[in-house]
Amino acid sequence: MAGRAAGPDLSGPVLAASGLFLAGLVCLPIGWLVAYAFSDRAGDPTLSNFVALIDDPTLFEPLVTTFGISICVAVAAALAAAPLAWIVARTDMPGRRIVRMLMTASFVTPPFLGAIAWEILAAPNSGILNKVWRDVTGAEDALFDVYSFAGLVFVISCYTAPYVFVVLSNALDRIPADLEDAAGILGAGRWKVVIGVTLPLALPALLAGTLVAFLQAMTLFGSPAILAIPAGFHTVTTKIYSLFQFPPRPQVASAAAIPLLAVTITLLWLQAKVLGRRGYAVVGGKNGEPRLVALGAWRWPVLALTLATLSLPLFLPYAALLKAAVSRVPSGPFDLANLTSENFTFVFFEFSQTRLAFSNTFVLAIATATGGTVLALLVASLAARRGGFYGRVLEFLATAPIAIPGIVLGVGLFLAYTRGPVVLYGTLWILLLAFLTIEMPAAFQQMRAAFRGLHPELEEASRILGADRLVTLRRITAPLLKSGVIAGWCLIFIGVVRELSAAVMLSSSATKVLSVVIFDLNESGNLGAIAVIGVAMLIVTFAVVGIANLLSGAGAGTRLRSG
Predict the structure, then answer these.
(1) Which residues of 37-55 are buried (b: 16+ CB within 10 A; e: fewer)?
(2) Which CATH number do you get for residue 386?
(3) What is the DSSP letter of 155?
(4) What pTM was computed for the model?
(5) Is residue 206 part of a domain?
(6) 527 and 116 in contact (C-beta within 8 Å)?
(7) What are phi and psi of 327, to 5 degrees?
(8) Distances (CA, A) of 396 to 34, 399, 456
(9) Is the CB of residue 180 less than 8 Å from the CB of residue 197?
(10) SS3 letters for 233-274?
């Protein structure tokens, strides 16, 4: 037997330090948030901040509005995504794989960028669709006003429906054909099987996806800030942001963040409970492949309807951004007189913030993706191989940030690092910590799934031959988990590029990232510059996704923040 490797075994201290760092990453900002919520300006304990939320209509109304929007979005997303998921998973519609890829592509689109694209399309006076409507019909009123409660619900639904689609379509893929065949043998017709067998088995996933849509709508910042504020109303996230404007009220902002955090945790717990009840769907041994419903003559009309649905989050917004990027007036006619390269010249040669924002964004994205992947690999290794109480604690800490809305985390980090002993506000470090915290669950879930598919025998053989845990992880485990590591890295990279809610709270003039620059440009109304930057962001992000698919050969279905 080979002797033990020379040199000290640092695996224990390194793994312990990783656990402590993860604990600080999650607990410190939440601790400061709670401390501020229950204290006054002098630092004395009080409940007056919560009383103010109830007594002040300008603070209480956003709570009611947010829940109203979230309920409407959850229902709309479920109604839109459920038929689409069933069509893709259980029928013989042509192009089903392409439709799945396009639905996945909508995850890459930052919701705040989608909201701006719908501004270009459906602003009441200048929106492209409204101008076409007036030209065709001669009507004076707009066809659709995106600056309204209904407009905000519609836009948010476009970018939350894919979450319902992914959860439900995956569940439909797993429903065994044996049960449906048994119902058919007993005399049930095709549609009776769908209604009596398939839908009840998929119901837990539909409920879980609807909860995700509700959660996304409730915690979203970018779309409400872009569409609700011009319409004259606030949501909880935009109100929290406004409470940090002059004069700042950090105690009240912290108190407003606590209910958002509590509801998020409750909904995620409910989602886990609902999904945890799916075990009754499969009994016995190996099950057959799902039986596809033949659509017959309806195959192509159904495909046309599906593509029309996909035009709402993808085709129309992308077309609007491309048109705005090359137009003097985004809503003007698409002719030579309106074509221009001035937007590109302004963004890449005249706008002083472009180079810095691109640099900050991709430095942070690469650093966060690399550091987060390494940390997730270490923590997943401990959680998967060590187990026990310590493993469960690490698993909880690694997944806990998924329950922290980005705006809430931004508030907590702002409170934690704007005073001594460690002052990080105004540096890229505070953004790095925020992005690490936000994106850790995605990377950890990817690594945990990869570890579950890897038998520990090779790792045990390496340990027997004298390698410590770190050497084994680097030389044996990580290469075997190559596809999971690459997918996790890309998930974090994409999440950082599209993150707005925490970034807008923590960025300074020297640390702005692309999402914040786009947000600022929207306030000045420079839609052409926004379109150029947005298209550049999408190109880079899709390139990363493409490289990930080539290198890892695996998809990633982990939750992304909406920003």
Answers:
(1) bbbeeeeeebeebbebbee
(2) 1.10.3720.10
(3) H
(4) 0.86
(5) no
(6) yes
(7) -120, 145
(8) 19, 5, 22
(9) yes
(10) CCCHHHHHHHCCCCCCCHHHHHHHHHHHHHHHHHHHHHHHHH
pLDDT tens-digit map of 479-529: 767 777 887 888 899 889 989 999 999 999 999 999 999 999 998 889 999
Is residue 531 within 8 Å of 330, Cβ to Cβ? yes
Range of the domain at 544: 7-33+341-563
Q: How many domains does the chain have?
A: 1
Residue 9 corresponds to which tokens in the numbers above? 């075994």
Residue 386, classed as helix, strand or coil, is: coil
Tokens of 143: 């066809």
User: 46: alpha, beta or left, given left = phi > 0 and alpha = psi -120 to 50?
Assistant: beta
Please check whether residue 547 lies inside any domain of the structure.
yes
3-class secondary structure, 365: helix
Length of the chain: 563
pLDDT at position 195: 61
How far CA 201 is from CA of 151, 161, 195, 197, in Å, comes to 33, 20, 10, 6
* HEC profile of 413-481: HHHHHCCCCCCCCCCHHHHHHHHHHHHHHHHHHHHHHHHHCCCCHHHHHHHHCCCCHHHHHHHHHHHHC
What is the structure's pLDDT at 404? 86
**In the numeric block, which tokens belong to residue 142?**
């707009």
- Domain membership flag for residue 75: no
Q: How far apart are CA 284 and CA 113, in angstroms?
A: 47
Which CB contacts under 8 angstroms, 24+ apart, belong to 547-553?
547/490, 548/486, 548/487, 548/489, 548/490, 551/482, 551/483, 551/486, 552/482, 552/483, 552/484, 552/486, 552/487, 553/483
DSSP 278: G
Q: How far is CA 489 from CA 368, 373, 485, 497, 529, in A?
A: 9, 6, 6, 13, 29
The pLDDT tens digits for 408-467 are 999 999 998 887 678 899 999 999 999 999 988 888 887 777 776 666 665 666 666 666
Per-residue b or e along 150-162, where b marks 16 or more CB atoms closer than 10 Å to that residue's CB: ebbbbbbbbbbbb
Q: Are 405 and 473 in contact (CB under 8 A)?
A: no
Distance CA 60, CA 50 (A): 10
**Residue 372 resides in a domain:** yes
